[in-house]
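Still learning. Any example?
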Amino acid sequence: MSKKEYFSKTGRSQKNDILAYHLRQSFKPGEVTPEEANRLGYELAMRFTKGRHSFIVATHVDKAHTHNHIIFNSTNLDCDRKFVNFWGSAFAVRKLNDLICLENGLSVIKNPKPAKGHYGTWLEGKGHKKKPTKIDELQQFIDTTLEKKPKDFDDFIQMLINNGCKVSQKHRKHISLIMPGHKKPIRLSSLSDDYTETALRERISGKRITPPAPRLPRPQEKLSLLVDIENSLKAKDSSGYERWAKIFNLKQAAQTLLFLQESNISDIDALRIAAQKAKDDFNDTQSRIHAADARLKEITVLQKHIGMYIKTRDIYTQYRKSGYSKKFLAKHQAQIEAHKAAKNFFNEQNLTKLPTIKMLQTEYATLAAEKKKLYSGYHAQREYMQNILLAKQNTEILLNCREQEEIPQDKESNRKGR
């Protein structure tokens, strides 16, 4: 019904429409009652969907571990939008679930093992037979060929041809393979990371041994400083605020613990060292960016004066040869004044020998590239520094060993704070 209403409102339809999404939430045996598990499943679904999608939480007790099956509608309650599954969604759900478990005093798997392969591979491990896809067959065919130890990539291609595989390369760029018994070609670039042309060359030469670790998205939630309830006048005047502050502190304590676990920090001394290093690294990056900015501005001004100096040099030479004639000055006053201004600038900068424009352009390009590289990790570095300094303060508050320290903020955060 919701899909029909969505279509009537938006006019959009999909050939392979996803009706709903399925999450599984499991708990350590004996830690929770079925009623408590159901409540936590409801909380996970509400916080993940932000209350915008209808869902069902089914709690099962047929296994040793109590677990929930959460199914939520892909169409939202207003039937005008749909949930779009995003890259890293499994990590986001796991992180949110870990946070909820920590808030409720439940155990969390510290180093969960990533799933191997897709759902079909998992089914095969459970005894379900699944017909391999054409891509699976091609990748297995490639693996079998690589076991014969080809000398180089050309030798590998020749082995494929000798084994009945057809190889084509359109526009000298994309290599496609046609398996024996198949009709349609499959590009190497469309296969998984370990089967692209670059990866195969690395595997043959021995540079690529194991697949690279998956890159995880940065945590979306930022840490906040714990509320000092004991010294808060607002908490003394308002019992409602005091209750809110206690719940807030509990959530932030759980968030702090989760951050420390993800950062592999297990004691206060290591935390202080890591916090100081993060602060020093960020300050160093910031100083280098400011220095590059200042030098880029200097180069721009210097190029302007050198260009004007060269442009007006002949006019000024004629003016000097004329014996500083007033008539010549009146005719070329703008050029002569610009030439004098450029010379005065060089004297102020103590420049006895002027650099060439080409040298300045090369230095400018190098500094601009360095600044761009520094900026690429600047925001992530700042966010990590702020989070680890907050984690340090929260940990010291919880351990009653707090050291007062100001946490650097950006200008926007300062304006919001005021």
Notes: The domain at 2-103 is CATH 3.30.70 (Alpha-Beta Plaits). The two ends are 48 Å apart (CA to CA). Residues 268-321 form the longest helix (54 residues). Residues 124 and 130 are 7 Å apart (CA to CA).
